Amino acid sequence: xxxxxxxxxxxxxLPTPRPETxxxxxxxxxxxxxxxxxxxxxxxxxxxxxxxxxxxxxxxxPLGFWFAQQGSMLGFVVIIxxxxxxxxxxxxxxxxxxxxxxxxxxxx
Length: 108
What we know:
The chain contains four helices and two strands. The chain is mainly alpha-helical. A two-stranded antiparallel sheet has the order 1-2. The longest helix has 45 residues, at 63-107. It is elongated and about 70 Å long.
């Protein structure tokens, strides 16, 4: 079996980012994606696509009206819940990485 080739970082002698740096990069990526989803729900569905969505009914109300009134708020709550779940996973991953680094430095 062949060994994997060098990574771009090792090929160019770039330092490996610290776990905290990777954590914040991932956090910002989560924030940007979730903000884009929130924008699409609140602005897109509530304003831009309202005429198209009004062709459908939800509980007797036009869907565009529903998104403008309740949908964007419910979408925001769902986005907050998704962010909490994602960040809890990311926090656990960072803590595990830091614990492994501490164990490695303690044993040396």
